[in-house]
Amino acid sequence: MKKKVYIETTIVSYLTAKPGRDLIIAAHQQVTREWWERRRAAYDLRVSQFVLDEAGDGDPGAAARRLAALADVPVLADSLEARALAKSFIRHRLLPEAAGIDALHLAMATVHEVDFLLTWNCRHLANAELLKEIARLVRRNDYEMPSVCTPEELMGVEDKT
Hints:
This protein is an alpha/beta fold. It has a single domain (3-153), classed as 3-Layer(aba) Sandwich (Rossmann fold), CATH 3.40.50.1010. The chain has 7 helices and 5 strands. It has helices at residues 9-16, 23-38, 49-55, 60-69, 80-91, 100-111, 128-140; strands spanning 3-7, 43-48, 75-76, 116-118, 147-149. It has a 5-stranded parallel β-sheet with strand order 3-2-1-4-5. The protein is globular, with a radius of gyration of 15 Å.
């Protein structure tokens, strides 16, 4: 059985964007494209309506490319449990109120028992300082936290034989 990966909005944004002029962003875009081409088939991908809503915002052409990339990805059902968990991240000041959508991404992946949350959002999601405390709260709520990582961290292991 394949492991499940929640595709957060930054992934599809980097995947479909025109190459960035900033070297770090351009590198993230390249790694994202490589992961999408070489590794995504190894996983069962998932998104939420929150991802689709964010992906559909902004420039109509860019939004169309993002949504087209996600067209075949199953959408997780919204739930009261996920919304409550997201609110608890904010209520316990583990994430700021301004990061409400980020809290929902993490809560959806957690409640739906997704194995990995794939993101380039290192401010609120792939942030080791925050994740340790968030994981404690997740466990207190009887859930298991997904591994939150970037595409670079989910490239697989090469055969060393």
